[in-house]
Amino acid sequence: MLNGKFHGSFQENYESGKIYRKENFNKGYKIGNWQYYFENGILKMEGIYENNKQIGHWKRFFIRLCENSKLSCTFVHYFKKKEIS
Fold it and tell me: What span, in angstroms and rounded, lies between the C-alpha atoms of 72 and 69?
């Protein structure tokens, strides 16, 4: 914290200790790469903030078993997230 505002890199964890999300702030503003994880530790979603606004395309990852396989496949969905006023 800096003058009562979030500043720097932060990490929030599930109760299990695995990472839930990683985030970055500059004097209270969301900046840089943000990442969210499934409880099993696999990346769930990531994107970039600039001055509190989501920019560019964010990626959301979906994991499921592949057909005729015991391997899991990762599917990526790119989307532009709208800001909520």
Answer: 8
